[in-house]
Design goal:
Elements lengths: L2 H19 L9 H8 L10 E5 L5 H9 L3 E6 L2 H13 L6 E5 L12 E6 L8 H8 L3 E14 L6 H10 L4 E2 H10 L2 E8 L6 H18 L4 H20 L3 E10 L3
Parallel strand pairs: 1-2, 1-4, 2-3, 4-5, 5-6
Antiparallel strand pairs: 5-8, 7-8
Helix pairs in contact: 2-3, 8-9
Bound molecules: S-adenosyl-L-homocysteine.
S-adenosyl-L-homocysteine binds next to helix 3 and strand 2.
Length: 259
């Protein structure tokens, strides 16, 4: 990549980060759903070590932190998100047991068998569902839990338009039974699986995003990157409205078992 491209790329990248930084969540979900997933996990104490991988600005981490006692290390690739994350931690007075760090999910800074719980909402797709399940397992104690949300197909067949969108965006999207089988194959006992309610997309994700889009477009009026970014976000929301019976997000909770 030459310097000129790098500059353009960096500019695009920081614009994209700025847009998503302005939201409490960077993917579908809700406090209720985070707590529902947490309700299947029974081994947590003050001594527990928890990781939230791909935490974004930490919407779900703060919910978790208010309801569990242990120490949480939350990790994201983007420093802007982690800055906002750590500001929230301070505001809530949680610095003694919640910490946001910059890092990558394919090179985690944890020790083998260190963690009681791995949390990851709407982020494992960045490494791939099966690869994430397999690579992250070693950081968990036997009997430790993993809770991840991931996009799923709700049927074997679907219209071409939505199939093409996902094959391009994330070809590893799969049906729920196949995903549960992958969890089992990776050395976990599937404990619970539930589909995120529509409100996690509409009310908790697309609605705040639509607000952020308006503000962003006003600020960067005439900027091609900003306009394209908003257009792609609006297309995604429209696809969901049109095809939501065919796909959505699923929460998977599983326990590491001895192999
Ligand atoms: N868990 C948050 C954010 C989900 S969006 C929520 O539910 O709101 C996916 C997140 O994964 C983004 O914050 C993105 O910055 C992060 N991400 C992407 N690639 C990553 C990587 N390789 N390592 C760590 N985080 C990554």
């Amino acid at each position: 990549m030459n310097n000129e491209n790098k500059t353009i790329h960096d500019f695009d990248f920081s614009l994209i980060c700025e847009f998503f930084s302005s939201m409490d969540r960077q993917g579908p979900g809700s406090p209720d759903v985070t707590l529902k997933a947490l309700s299947f996990i029974d081994n947590l104490t003050q001594e527990s070590r928890i990781a939230d991988i791909g935490c974004g600005t930490g919407g779900q981490t703060m919910t978790l932190a208010k309801h569990v006692q242990g120490k949480i290390t939350a990790l994201d690739l983007f420093p802007d998100f982690i800055n906002i994350f750590n500001q929230k931690v301070k505001q809530l007075g949680l610095e003694h047991r919640v910490n946001g760090i910059v890092g990558s999910m394919d090179n985690l800074p944890f020790r083998t068998g260190e963690l009681d719980l791995i949390w990851s909402e709407g982020a494992i797709y960045n490494i791939g569902f099966e690869r994430g399940l397999n690579e992250w397992r070693k950081y968990l104690k036997t009997g430790g839990y993993i809770a991840v949300s991931e996009s799923s197909w709700f049927s074997d067949e679907r219209p071409k338009e939505i199939n093409d969108f996902w094959v391009n965006a994330y070809p590893e999207i799969d049906t729920i039974p196949n995903q549960v089988a992958k969890i089992y194959k990776a050395g976990y006992l599937p404990v619970a699986t539930f589909i995120l309610p529509e409100a996690c997309w509409t009310q908790h994700y697309f609605a705040p995003k639509a607000m952020a889009e308006g503000i962003f477009l006003e600020k960067y009026s005439g900027n091609k990157t900003a306009e394209e970014l908003v257009a792609s976000q609006r297309d995604e929301a429209e696809l969901y409205r049109k095809y939501k019976e065919f796909y959505g997000y699923t929460f998977f909770i599983a326990k590491k078992v001895r192999l």
